């Protein structure tokens, strides 16, 4: 079976880049990305490709090449479903904010809506691919909904979790470590569906990196991968606090530990805490699944990764207050960076939001600069926390387009995202414009400490 027409439901951080790369690498496949969010689709269709809604290095060039050729963005979800032989579901699966499992379980209402829409519209056999990160055994529920419409359409459900990291999405999609495809490999139809998807990826990914498993292993592997990655960050962050008390340097510890080939060097960078839309929600989901099977020790074990991360964000902000003579009330503090990591405009669960909120509770005046995040997004992130009114957030927080302007007249500067451009700022000029003593808090271990101390900064870095 050869796939000719793909539909992807959800034009977000996963659906957009993933489909752009599939379209670029498979010119013979028509790829249509649909979304109910009209303004997002309009942005994807903006004649100026620099204005697409998601910032990822290299993405706009790919969109420029494929859009209008075999890559299309649309709000006509029904038509795209009807036309497609393979449908990717790439919608959001946030943590539930209500009812059973509130604050832990994944909210699958968007997934279910997709399944019902597919069931209503489809007239011929479809392969449905779970691209969203889902609790183990979701495919069963999807199949149930799809099979119970009684219109004679046959569905094959595949799990194909996405492992891209924001900020390096294009590179990750072009050269994935592996592509995981879970399917009903015991039936001929299931096998055929798995092969059809494998053939799509094989157009640019070496066959030995295309991994086939049963559906449940595939669903659970994605949650496991995120839990392991987040665990490494929390592990090194736990050590960063101990380093600060003992005179050890967390970068040196990380290097020494990471050179052990059994451990490896990646994801051992101490920071103000991990953010992003996935780690927290996926681990909470894992914890919820473990609890629902009565596996309380398993649940507690993984929950500690989240607790450590919350602690790291809070302790960074608390250290700032403590260093500044136990009060930041009325003091101007410049936050450099708002995105949850560099090279993305995504701010979901960014540590910066929580640090800002803590400092605002201490009555600080905040000025934010981030090269890719809009003012509107920053206010919306703070408003979402509900700690104070929207007006109060707008009164206490200013957003500027220039890092030097942010730091002008500030008592303190905090680096919260590791944007490369912060390393080459004119730190002498920043120091000259600040109130003295001038505090510089590096939440990302981005800056070289000695030169900053030599300029005169009171310099604090995580884990040192
Ligand atoms: N962001 C990441 O780095 C990443 C990486 C791997 C996996 N994932 C997983 O991929 C999934 C999507 O994540 P994302 O970051 O792209 O989310 P996102 O919020 O950026 O995008 C999801 C999109 O789906 C749309 N949508 C929701 N319901 C819809 C419906 N019924 N019909 C049409 N469109 C609908 C929303 O409007 C939104 O634009 C999640 O399950 C996430 O866990 C994310």
UniProtKB/TrEMBL annotation:
Family annotation (InterPro entries): 6-PGluconate_DH-like_C_sf (IPR008927), NAD(P)-bd_dom_sf (IPR036291), UDP-Glc/GDP-Man (IPR017476), UDP-Glc/GDP-Man_DH_C (IPR014027), UDP-Glc/GDP-Man_DH_C_sf (IPR036220), UDP-Glc/GDP-Man_DH_dimer (IPR014026), UDP-Glc/GDP-Man_DH_N (IPR001732), UDPglc_DH_euk (IPR028356)
Designated name of the protein: UDP-glucose 6-dehydrogenase
EC code(s) of this entry: 1.1.1.22
Keywords: NAD, Oxidoreductase
NCBIfam families: NDP-sugDHase
Reactions it catalyzes: UDP-alpha-D-glucose + 2 NAD(+) + H2O = UDP-alpha-D-glucuronate + 2 NADH + 3 H(+)
Pathway annotation from the record: Nucleotide-sugar biosynthesis; UDP-alpha-D-glucuronate biosynthesis; UDP-alpha-D-glucuronate from UDP-alpha-D-glucose: step 1/1
Listed Gene3D superfamilies: Cytochrome c1, transmembrane anchor, C-terminal, NAD(P)-binding Rossmann-like Domain
Alphabetized SUPFAM superfamilies for the sequence: 6-phosphogluconate dehydrogenase C-terminal domain-like, NAD(P)-binding Rossmann-fold domains, UDP-glucose/GDP-mannose dehydrogenase C-terminal domain
Enzyme class: oxidoreductase
């Amino acid at each position: 079976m050869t796939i000719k027409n793909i539909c992807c439901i959800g034009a977000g951080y996963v659906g957009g880049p993933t489909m752009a790369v599939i379209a670029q690498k498979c010119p013979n496949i028509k790829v249509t990305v649909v979304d109910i969010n009209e303004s997002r689709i309009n942005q994807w269709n903006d004649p100026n490709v620099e204005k697409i809604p998601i910032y990822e290095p290299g993405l706009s060039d790919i969109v420029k090449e494929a859009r209008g050729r075999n890559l299309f963005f649309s709000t006509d979800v029904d038509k795209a479903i009807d036309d497609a032989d393979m449908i990717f579901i790439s919608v959001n699966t946030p943590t539930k904010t209500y009812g059973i499992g509130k604050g832990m379980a994944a909210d699958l209402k968007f997934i279910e809506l997709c399944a019902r829409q597919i069931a209503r519209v489809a007239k011929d056999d479809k392969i449905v691919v779970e691209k969203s990160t889902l609790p183990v055994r979701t495919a069963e529920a999807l199949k149930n909904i799809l099979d119970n419409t009684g219109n004679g359409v046959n569905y094959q459900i595949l799990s194909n979790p996405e492992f891209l990291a924001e900020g390096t999405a294009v590179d990750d999609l072009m050269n994935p470590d592996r592509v995981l495809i879970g399917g009903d490999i015991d039936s001929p139809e299931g096998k055929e569906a798995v092969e059809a998807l494998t053939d799509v990826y094989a157009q640019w990914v070496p066959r030995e990196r295309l991994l086939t498993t049963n559906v449940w292993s595939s669903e659970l592997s994605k949650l496991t991968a995120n839990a392991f990655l987040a665990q490494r960050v929390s592990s090194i962050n736990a050590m960063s606090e101990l380093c600060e008390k003992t005179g050890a340097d967390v970068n040196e510890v990380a290097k020494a530990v990471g050179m052990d080939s059994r451990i490896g060097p990646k994801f051992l960078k101490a920071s103000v805490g991990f953010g992003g839309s996935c780690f927290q929600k996926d681990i909470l989901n894992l914890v919820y699944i473990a609890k629902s099977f009565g596996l309380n020790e398993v649940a507690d074990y993984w929950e500690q990764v989240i607790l450590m991360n919350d602690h790291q964000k809070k302790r960074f902000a608390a250290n700032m207050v403590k260093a500044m003579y136990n009060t930041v009330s009325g003091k101007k503090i410049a936050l450099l960076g708002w995105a949850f990591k560099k090279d993305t405009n995504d701010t979901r669960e960014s540590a910066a939001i929580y640090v800002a909120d803590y400092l605002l509770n201490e009555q600080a005046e905040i000025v934010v600069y981030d090269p890719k995040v809009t003012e509107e997004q920053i206010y919306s992130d703070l408003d979402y926390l509900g700690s104070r009114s929207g007006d109060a957030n707008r009164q206490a927080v200013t957003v500027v387009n220039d890092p030097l302007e942010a730091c002008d007249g500030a008592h303190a500067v905090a680096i919260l995202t590791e944007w490369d451009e912060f390393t080459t700022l004119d730190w002498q000029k920043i120091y000259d414009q600040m109130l003295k003593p001038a505090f510089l808090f590096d939440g990302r271990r981005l800056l070289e400490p000695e030169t900053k101390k030599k300029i005169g900064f009171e310099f604090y870095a995580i884990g040192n």
